[in-house]
Amino acid sequence: TQYDMAGVTYTAEVNDEGNIVEKIVVDYTSADFKKLETAGLITLDEDKKATYISLEQTVNTLKSSGFVCE
Questions:
Q1: Which of 8, 35, 45, 51 matches a 20 to 30 Å C-alpha distance to 16?
Q2: pLDDT exceeds cutoff 90 at 59
Q3: If DSSP states are collapsed to H, E and C, what string results for the chain?
Q4: Which of these, 32, 40, 28, lies nearest to 5 by C-alpha position?
C-alpha cells in the first residue's frame, strides 16, 4: 500500500455495518516526513520542512473530504 513505510502502521477492515474502517498510526520519531508527504499524510511548507503536526487540522481535512473520524 502507499502507507508501507517505516513509522507507519496501516490496517483496514469491514465492520458489521459494512463500512470500511481504516486505521493509520504514525510514529513521527521514526517516519520519513518526505515519504509521509508523498503518501498524503502530511503537508510540508515551501521549504519542504514540517514545522508542526496539527491533529485538529488533520481531522478537519479528513472530515471535509467526507471521512468520519473517531
A1: 8
A2: no
A3: CCCCCCCEEEEEEECCCCCEEEEEEECCCCCCHHHHHHCCCCCCCCCCCCCCCCHHHHHHHHHHCCCCCC
A4: 32
When comparing pLDDT for 65 and 43, which is higher?
A: 65
Nearest-angstrom CA–CA distance, 50 and 16: 38
The alpha carbon of 6 is separated from its chain's Cα centroid by a whole number of angstroms, namely 13
pLDDT at 9: 94
Contacts of 28 (CB under 8 A, 6+ apart): 7, 53
Read off the C-alpha cell for 63: 472530515
